[in-house]
């Protein structure tokens, strides 16, 4: 059966002789620690319960929340439009804040906030959060914000960010958080698309030891957004700011408000937030999430996947709240569960490369959730850095954002987790709202690099290009068969694009755009975006497998591979690698690595070229941008680089290219 990559990928339209190749063999297994398994929040029986009655399973998950009115119907499914917990009413902010205070946990810490400048920290209890969110809700009401209105939030990682989100949720306004690194034009297009009437921002934030301004960007964007009535500005850096009549200081507006606010119930299907996802190209899509189903699944997965013990765990997710990982696993899931979390404002190398581990040691973090891009960077910096800190408090480690290479997984397990913590590789998307495929730390004998099984209540599958399930050992397209509570409801203002993007490739199935394989045991491995798949001599080869083979070489910290047009093989594999910190670039490194890939995956996957580079192009959320590397590999002028974190990286890489030779 041939695999045809949909969309605008390099292979669009071409047909191969096989489904996605399954080249990487991995035999290592890590059983759950016995003590963790014995006391685990969720056990094997959850899979059976969900299989027996999926909707009853989600009913029970929803019952973990406090509802003002119970739902009449668990799911109303008018494909591809889903409504969950229909007729139910709840207040999301009440669930995340007030109910914990009412239960007598007002003094429990909700957030330990750690600013980038050392010594700059704040402790926020659930009672503090209740007062702050109430004041901010009253402030929004004073500004004329009503239920259903949209509020854009453009803030650094400071406590006012979750407070603003919860204040919106409390009054039924819809927040649209825009990552603080985005430009004025990106901010403007997001404000416009959602028709936001208020923007919440700050003078600036601290990044790499320096104040970095935000307000000028907002001024530039708002000048072209006549629909914006007011701009609320948090004073964080005390930088000078220009001022307009729309502007009001947070401390002038919010501080004088009453700290009492009565949360009204909202329908389970009332919009909670919009979050824009750009994909790799094209107009950003406003992913719409609603309250009841989203909170049900984020809270349940946070409890299950991280085995959260509310009383004793200190949990830290290192993502930025501007991305979905921060929305679901810094704000909504952990707060709904009454967790104590850490929020860190800054970067991992400020003021030194051990900052993360210093934070783990300081707060005695027990659950850490981070991204492969960070893990590979730590590998590059060297094992000796984490070794200097006491990280014996850690008990569960998580990964999200990209496929985690087996070697990075094993490094994370050993050097961060002291070989005693299970690592959960969690697959999900902005669109899915919550974790979908992941090991359970007290149940799963995990394989390094595999997301393993769909969580209870989720029906994921791997299909060929006709939409038929592939057998064990086969590769193809990941799909989700049944609706799930936290799924996106639509693309804001564009139902047709929602249908076309996610539900048209395989009728009746949700298509996330990722390739995957199911191994001989039936476990799932994510193989990267299907647009990145390489077609080499009639074989569909995933970027992930070749990258993982490269990272499994002791000299390599990080790798990105792309398919470049080749007169003989159709496409040839071009690799970009970053060496580990203590390794010098030698003459024969390319030959050595090519040989290593051929030995690990077979000769078909041997790269034509290997380039040692200092950095790789990444999106602002840390994902490798292979599209730009393809431009370089095919000697094209670079496409759109505006979503790159650091565009100078591409010059460094291009300079390398003329010297790189193919060895065959
Ligand atoms: C949560 C988040 C979604 C895309 C997704 C996939 C990739 C995320 C992954 C993973 C392999 C994992 N992805 N987690 N790939 N293994 N554990 O990252 O959301 O920013 O929308 O990105 O990220 O390609 O489709 P988002």
TrEMBL record:
<comment type="function">
    <text>Catalyzes the conversion of acetate into acetyl-CoA (AcCoA), an essential intermediate at the junction of anabolic and catabolic pathways. AcsA undergoes a two-step reaction. In the first half reaction, AcsA combines acetate with ATP to form acetyl-adenylate (AcAMP) intermediate. In the second half reaction, it can then transfer the acetyl group from AcAMP to the sulfhydryl group of CoA, forming the product AcCoA.</text>
</comment>
<dbReference type="InterPro" id="IPR011904">
    <property type="entry name" value="Ac_CoA_lig"/>
</dbReference>
<keyword id="KW-0547">Nucleotide-binding</keyword>
<feature type="binding site">
    <location>
        <position position="514"/>
    </location>
    <ligand>
        <name>ATP</name>
    </ligand>
</feature>
<dbReference type="Pfam" id="PF00501">
    <property type="entry name" value="AMP-binding"/>
</dbReference>
<feature type="modified residue" description="N6-acetyllysine">
    <location>
        <position position="623"/>
    </location>
</feature>
<dbReference type="GO" id="GO:0005524">
    <property type="term" value="F:ATP binding"/>
</dbReference>
<keyword id="KW-0067">ATP-binding</keyword>
<feature type="binding site">
    <location>
        <begin position="401"/>
        <end position="403"/>
    </location>
    <ligand>
        <name>ATP</name>
    </ligand>
</feature>
<protein>
    <recommendedName>
        <fullName>Acetyl-coenzyme A synthetase</fullName>
        <ecNumber>6.2.1.1</ecNumber>
    </recommendedName>
</protein>
<dbReference type="Pfam" id="PF16177">
    <property type="entry name" value="ACAS_N"/>
</dbReference>
<dbReference type="Pfam" id="PF13193">
    <property type="entry name" value="AMP-binding_C"/>
</dbReference>
<feature type="binding site">
    <location>
        <position position="325"/>
    </location>
    <ligand>
        <name>CoA</name>
    </ligand>
</feature>
<dbReference type="GO" id="GO:0003987">
    <property type="term" value="F:acetate-CoA ligase activity"/>
</dbReference>
<feature type="domain" description="AMP-dependent synthetase/ligase">
    <location>
        <begin position="103"/>
        <end position="484"/>
    </location>
</feature>
<feature type="binding site">
    <location>
        <position position="553"/>
    </location>
    <ligand>
        <name>Mg(2+)</name>
    </ligand>
</feature>
<dbReference type="InterPro" id="IPR025110">
    <property type="entry name" value="AMP-bd_C"/>
</dbReference>
<dbReference type="InterPro" id="IPR045851">
    <property type="entry name" value="AMP-bd_C_sf"/>
</dbReference>
<feature type="binding site">
    <location>
        <begin position="425"/>
        <end position="430"/>
    </location>
    <ligand>
        <name>ATP</name>
    </ligand>
</feature>
<dbReference type="GO" id="GO:0019427">
    <property type="term" value="P:acetyl-CoA biosynthetic process from acetate"/>
</dbReference>
<feature type="domain" description="Acetyl-coenzyme A synthetase N-terminal">
    <location>
        <begin position="44"/>
        <end position="96"/>
    </location>
</feature>
<dbReference type="InterPro" id="IPR020845">
    <property type="entry name" value="AMP-binding_CS"/>
</dbReference>
<feature type="binding site">
    <location>
        <begin position="207"/>
        <end position="210"/>
    </location>
    <ligand>
        <name>CoA</name>
    </ligand>
</feature>
<feature type="domain" description="AMP-binding enzyme C-terminal">
    <location>
        <begin position="545"/>
        <end position="623"/>
    </location>
</feature>
<dbReference type="InterPro" id="IPR032387">
    <property type="entry name" value="ACAS_N"/>
</dbReference>
<dbReference type="GO" id="GO:0005829">
    <property type="term" value="C:cytosol"/>
</dbReference>
<feature type="binding site">
    <location>
        <position position="556"/>
    </location>
    <ligand>
        <name>Mg(2+)</name>
    </ligand>
</feature>
<keyword id="KW-0436">Ligase</keyword>
<comment type="similarity">
    <text>Belongs to the ATP-dependent AMP-binding enzyme family.</text>
</comment>
<keyword id="KW-0460">Magnesium</keyword>
<keyword id="KW-0479">Metal-binding</keyword>
<feature type="binding site">
    <location>
        <position position="537"/>
    </location>
    <ligand>
        <name>CoA</name>
    </ligand>
</feature>
<keyword id="KW-0007">Acetylation</keyword>
<dbReference type="GO" id="GO:0046872">
    <property type="term" value="F:metal ion binding"/>
</dbReference>
<feature type="binding site">
    <location>
        <position position="529"/>
    </location>
    <ligand>
        <name>ATP</name>
    </ligand>
</feature>
<feature type="binding site">
    <location>
        <position position="551"/>
    </location>
    <ligand>
        <name>Mg(2+)</name>
    </ligand>
</feature>
<dbReference type="InterPro" id="IPR042099">
    <property type="entry name" value="ANL_N_sf"/>
</dbReference>
<dbReference type="InterPro" id="IPR000873">
    <property type="entry name" value="AMP-dep_synth/lig_dom"/>
</dbReference>
<dbReference type="GO" id="GO:0016208">
    <property type="term" value="F:AMP binding"/>
</dbReference>
């Amino acid at each position: 059966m041939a695999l045809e990559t949909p969309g605008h990928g390099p292979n669009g339209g071409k047909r191969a002789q096989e489904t996605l190749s399954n080249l990487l063999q991995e035999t290592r297994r890590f059983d759950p620690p016995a003590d963790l398994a014995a006391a685990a929040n969720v056990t094997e029986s959850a899979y059976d319960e969900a299989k027996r009655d999926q909707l009853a399973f989600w009913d029970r998950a929803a019952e973990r929340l406090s509802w003002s009115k119970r739902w009449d119907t668990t799911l109303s499914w008018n494909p591809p439009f889903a409504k969950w917990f229909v007729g139910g009413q709840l207040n999301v902010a009440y669930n995340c804040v007030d109910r914990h205070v009412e239960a007598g946990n007002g003094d429990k810490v909700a957030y330990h906030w750690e600013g980038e400048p050392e010594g700059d920290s704040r402790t926020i209890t659930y009672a503090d959060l209740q007062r702050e969110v109430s004041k901010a809700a009253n402030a929004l009401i004073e500004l004329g914000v009503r239920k259903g209105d949209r509020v854009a939030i453009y803030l650094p990682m400071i406590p006012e960010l979750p407070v603003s989100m919860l204040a919106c949720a409390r009054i039924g306004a819809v927040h649209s958080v825009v990552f603080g690194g985005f430009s004025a034009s990106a901010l403007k297009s997001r404000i416009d698309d959602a028709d936001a009437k208020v923007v919440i921002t700050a003078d600036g934030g601290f990044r790499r030891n320096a104040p970095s301004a935000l307000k000028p960007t907002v001024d530039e964007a708002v000048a072209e957004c006549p629909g914006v009535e007011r701009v609320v500005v948090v004073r964080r850096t005390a930088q000078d700011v220009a001022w307009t009549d729309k502007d009001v200081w947070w401390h002038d507006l919010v501080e004088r408000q009453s700290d009492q606010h009565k949360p009204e119930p909202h329908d389970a299907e009332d919009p909670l937030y919009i979050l824009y996802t750009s994909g790799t190209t094209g107009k950003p899509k406003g992913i719409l999430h609603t309250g009841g189903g989203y909170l049900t699944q984020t809270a349940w997965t946070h409890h299950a996947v991280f085995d959260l013990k509310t009383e004793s765990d200190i949990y830290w997710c290192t993502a930025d709240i501007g991305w979905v990982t921060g929305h679901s696993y810094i704000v909504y899931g952990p707060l709904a569960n009454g967790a104590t979390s850490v929020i860190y404002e800054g970067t991992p190398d400020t003021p030194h490369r051990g900052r993360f581990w210093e934070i783990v040691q300081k707060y005695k973090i027990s659950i850490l959730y981070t991204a492969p891009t960070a893990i590979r960077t730590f590998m590059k910096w060297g094992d000796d850095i984490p070794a200097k800190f006491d990280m014996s408090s850690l008990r569960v480690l998580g990964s999200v954002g990209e496929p985690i290479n087996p070697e990075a997984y094993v490094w994370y397990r050993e050097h961060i987790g002291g070989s005693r913590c299970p690592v959960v590789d969690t697959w999900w998307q902005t669109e899915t709202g919550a974790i979908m495929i992941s090991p359970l730390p007290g149940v799963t004998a995990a394989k390094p690099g595999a997301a393993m099984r769909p969580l209870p209540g989720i029906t994921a599958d791997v299909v060929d290009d006709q939409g038929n399930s592939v057998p064990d050992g086969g590769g193809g397209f990941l799909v989700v068969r049944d609706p799930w509570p936290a799924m996106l409801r639509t693309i804001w203002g564009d139902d047709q694009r929602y249908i076309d993007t996610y539900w048209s490739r395989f009728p009746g199935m949700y298509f996330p755009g990722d390739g995957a394989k199911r191994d001989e045991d039936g476990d799932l491995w994510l193989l990267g975006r299907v647009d990145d798949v390489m077609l080499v001599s009639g074989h569909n080869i995933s970027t992930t497998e070749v990258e993982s083979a490269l990272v499994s070489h002791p000299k390599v910290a990080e790798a990105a591979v792309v398919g470049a047009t080749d007169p003989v093989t159709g496409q040839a594999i071009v690799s970009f690698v970053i060496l580990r910190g203590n390794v010098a670039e030698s003459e024969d490194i390319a030959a050595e690595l090519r040989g290593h890939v051929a030995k690990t995956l077979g000769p078909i996957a041997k790269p034509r070229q290997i380039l040692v580079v200092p950095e790789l192009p990444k999106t602002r959320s840390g994902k490798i941008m292979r599209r730009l590397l393809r431009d370089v590999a095919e000697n094209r002028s670079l496409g759109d680089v505006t979503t790159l974190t650091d565009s100078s990286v591409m010059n460094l890489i291009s300079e390398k290219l003329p010297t790189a030779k193919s060895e065959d």
